[in-house]
Amino acid sequence: MTKVLDIDDARGMRHCETTALGVLLRHQGVDLSEPMLFGLGSGLSFVYWDAKNMGFPFLGGRVKPFELTRNLATRLGLELLVQETTSPRRAWEHASAAVDAGHPVGLQLDSYYLDYFTSRVHFGGHVVAMYGYDDHDAHLVDTDQQGGAVSTSLTSLAQARAARGPMTAKHRSFTLTAPQSPPSPHGRIVPAITACAEAFLNPPIANLGHRGIEKAGKLVRTWLQRTDVPQRDLPRAALLMEKAGTGGALFRNLYRDFLAECTQLHDSSHLRTGHTLYTEAATLWTEVAALLTKAGESGDAQCLAQAGTVLCDLSRIEREAMQALSRLGE
At 329, is the pLDDT very low, low, confident or very high (cuts 50, 70, 90)? Predict the structure, then answer.
């Protein structure tokens, strides 16, 4: 078996991309909390996604896959080596070469094919860290809820990496290298927060940012008519918001905890306001998920009306939070 030494498991991490980043960075001697990784990567966002080929709308709470990694690498002055290919053979050579050289490697893939996943749903934006392999299996680190240090067959890994569809990449693998004297993460907090706030406050289309949350508040009221199986689709939407690697509350728990960590490092009334408002927002997102579940189980449209009202409140609360946070750079 070929294995990278001194690899930590998921350490209770809840989101796939920050889990993999944590593994790669700790191996480079950079040890940051999961909320700090998420926040420095300007990971928070919102999207209301309802394409023609989708069976049911999707509420997303973060930037698109891998954007967080690129943001974090730029912000911390890390060397990010990304390799992509349409060849499965070359893809394995890329990944295994990193492990052979003693480095864990990040892989973006479709989690549906991984042996250890018990809930099989196609998600092409899943990210894991590979730290070893043998003749039959690849040894990975995934989120805590997926088992932390896990294994999957080389065949299943190849299928997951070769998958095509929404959010997939062409056998993407990546490594991170820290400079001898990396910049202090503390000094990069304000640019990370203000960049995130700017994108959230000024989305290019109405499906994104605070405008997207407001749109969701209007459209969620119609969701019982949007599906033939509400008892399946509405609870599933709620589950994705709370349990599917979001850290709860559609990533708002992670951003709340990031802001809390920042208040210990920066004395700013704007920062404290943002933290207070995102603490409120996180609670309300969990309330929305509960209302969606109840609506699916009961068929009661009033639950969706209540969810819509809460979402409209959330659009305002998060807009006010981001307006305060945008002033950090002044």
Answer: confident
pLDDT at 153: 98
Tokens representing 199? 């994108």
Distance separating alpha carbons of residues 48 and 50, to the nearest angstrom: 7
**Can you give the CATH number for the domain in which 7 is found?**
3.90.70
Residue 274, helix vs strand vs coil:
helix
Domain assignment present for 164: yes
Q: What is the CATH number of the domain that holds 256?
A: 1.20.120
Residue reference for tokens 């290019």: 204
Structural domains counted in the chain:
2
For residues 315 and 260, give the distance between their C-alpha atoms in angstroms, rounded to a whole number: 21
| Residue-level pLDDT at 10 | 65
Average pLDDT over residues 198-214: 97
Q: 57-64 contacts: CB < 8 A, separation 24 or more?
A: 57/219, 57/223, 57/226, 57/237, 58/237, 58/240, 59/216, 59/237, 59/240, 59/241, 59/250, 60/250, 61/241, 61/246, 61/250, 61/251, 61/252, 61/285, 62/246, 62/251, 63/199, 64/125, 64/167
Query: Per-residue pLDDT tens for 273-318?
Result: 999 999 999 999 999 999 999 999 999 999 999 999 999 999 999 9
